[in-house]
C-alpha cells in the first residue's frame, strides 16, 4: 500500500522527500523484513494469549522423546502469526500487481487454509490424525497445477535469452509478448523476451536444462508435451517442499530457523535474477519482475525471525500445520518461479533428508517384514531429528541404533541450522562454480 501510494502521488506530481526510495528494491526489502518482524513480535504475544484462552493446545502422544510430555498444552496454530506478518510486510512494500507476488500471495493463503483446516480438525474435532494424507495431497497438487498453468499461460512470466530462429514454433507466436515478428541477427534472436521451459542446473558451465529434452514428441505435439512435463515438475516440487517442511516441524525452532536460512538464499537469487546487470555478469537467466520476489522473501524471513522469538526452546507456541504447510508452499512456489527448482535438494537439504528418512524407513520396514517376517527399521525413529532425540528403544531391530546418551533438542536444532547454513552457502557458490 505504501509503495502504490507513493507511486500514485508521484504520478500526480507530488515531490515528498524520500518518495524516491520506494524505487529501490533494497529499501523496500529491508522495510518489508523489519515490518514483518516487528509485527510478529508485537502481535504474536496477543495471538498466543488468545490461543491459550481458547485452549488451542498441542496434544502429545508419549513416544519416549526427551521433554515431549512437557510440551502438552502448548498453544498450536501459531502459523497464523507467520502468515499475518508476511501479508503485512508484502501488502505495504511489494508491488501487488506483479504476477510473481500475486502467485506467492495466493499460495500463502491456499497453504495456510489447508494447514488451518488440518489443525482445526486436530484441536476442535479431537482427531489426532487431522486432515487425511490424501486430502492434503489433493490440496497441494491442485496448488501445483494452478501455479504451473499460470507459468505456462501468463504473458508476464518470461525469460530474456538468445533464441535460435530455426525452432518449430514461429518466433512471432511463441517467442514474443506482442506477437510481432522478432528482429533476428544471424542465427539468434538477441535478448528476446520468451516463454521458456528452461531451468537452472548446478555444476555445469551452460547451467540450463530445458524440459523439452524430455519430450518424446517433435513439432506441435512436442511443444505441448514439454509444457505438460514442466507443469508436472512444478506440481512435484511444490508438493514435496510443502510436505518436507511439515515433516521437519518437530522440534522447537527447527522448521522456522531452517526456513529462514532458505528464505535468505531464495531472496538473493530473486534479486540477482531480476537484475539485468547482475544476471549477465553471473550468466544466469534474467527474468523481468522477479526482483519483487526478493521483497516478498524479505517479509517471509522477517516473519520467521519474529516467530522464532516465541518458538525457540522452550517454545511458547507451535506453528502447527498452519505454518509448516505455508512455509513449504512458499519455498516451493518461489523456487519454481525463479527456475531454481533443481537446486532444491541442495538448498533445502535438511527438508530433503528429513523426508527421505521417512520414505526409506517405511519402505525398508515393509520390505523386511514381507521377506523376513520381521520389520527392521533403519533409524530408531523418523523423521531423522527424532532419531537423535529418541530416549526409548522401540521394539524390533534397528540398523542404526540411537545415540547414547540422546542429544538435547536445542542442540539438535542448532546443529541442523548449521548444516543448513553450509548448504545455503554451497548453493550460492554454485553461481560461480560451474
The portion of residues forming beta strands comes to 5-15%
Overall 3D form: globular
Provide the low-confidence segments as ranges: 163-190
Main pleated sheet: 2 strands, antiparallel
Terminal CA distance reads 41 Å
Characterization of the model:
The protein is mainly alpha-helical. The protein has 2 domains: 31-154 and 231-355, no CATH class; 159-227, no CATH class. Helices cover 59% and strands 6% of the residues. The chain is built from 15 helices and 6 strands. Strands 1-2 form a two-stranded antiparallel ribbon. Strands 3-4 form a two-stranded antiparallel ribbon. β5, α14 (384-389) and β6 (398-400) form a beta-alpha-beta unit. α4 packs antiparallel against α5. 44% of the residues are buried.
In short:
The chain is mostly helical and 434 residues long.
Write the layout of secondary structure elements.
Blueprint: H1 2-11, H2 25-53, H3 79-93, H4 99-124, H5 133-153, E1 159-164, H6 171-174, E2 188-194, E3 198-200, E4 208-210, H7 219-248, H8 254-273, H9 276-282, H10 291-311, H11 320-337, H12 344-347, H13 349-372, E5 377-379, H14 384-389, E6 398-400, H15 409-429
Parallel strand pairs: 5-6
Antiparallel strand pairs: 1-2, 3-4
Helix pairs in contact: 2-3, 2-10, 3-4, 3-10, 3-11, 4-5, 4-11, 5-7, 7-11, 7-13, 8-10, 8-11, 8-15
